[in-house]
Design brief:
The chain is of the alpha+beta class. The protein has a single domain, classed as Nuclear Transport Factor 2, Chain: A, CATH 3.10.450. It is built from 3 helices and 7 strands; from the N terminus they run ααββαβββββ. It starts with 14 loop residues before the first helix and ends with a strand.
């Protein structure tokens, strides 16, 4: 018979680290300069990292760059919105989660909201970003 065991583990990711990752991630979507966005992708993601939503999948730097570029062109440059973290980033082990909103600058109401959950690799880079759009 196997005995179940519960161990107390330390949380490897503190709020400061989770906030830093989520803030850099949100800034990437708002960045108008294509070269700066590509550099942000390379710093945030593992080389074979993925961004997954219900309707899209991007794997690797080239596909991630295309995914971010298209969203930026449509929502930020095209429609005048910005992405914002709601300031609730947290995590443990190799997972980070936070909520975000997309809104016009200075707007009280968000046009869209959601949550992203990151699975980080051993170097603290995003291996997989799961995007959940709530509204």
């Amino acid at each position: 018979m196997r005995a179940d065991k519960v161990s107390v583990l330390s949380a490897d990711i503190d709020v400061e680290t989770a906030t830093d990752i989520s803030d850099r991630y949100v800034a990437m979507w708002n960045e108008p300069n294509a070269g700066t966005r590509r550099a942000a992708i390379a710093k945030l993601w593992a080389p074979d990292g993925a961004c997954l939503s219900k309707s899209l999948e991007a794997r690797g730097y080239e596909a991630l760059d295309e995914r971010v570029r298209r969203a930026h062109e449509r929502w930020v440059a095209g429609a005048g919105y910005r992405f914002y973290s709601t300031g609730d980033a947290n995590g443990h082990h190799n997972i980070v989660r936070f909520h975000w909103k997309m809104a016009a600058p200075g707007a009280v109401e968000a046009e869209s909201t959601g949550q992203d959950i990151f699975l980080l690799d051993g170097q603290g880079r995003i291996a997989v970003a799961y995007q959940f759009v709530d509204s």
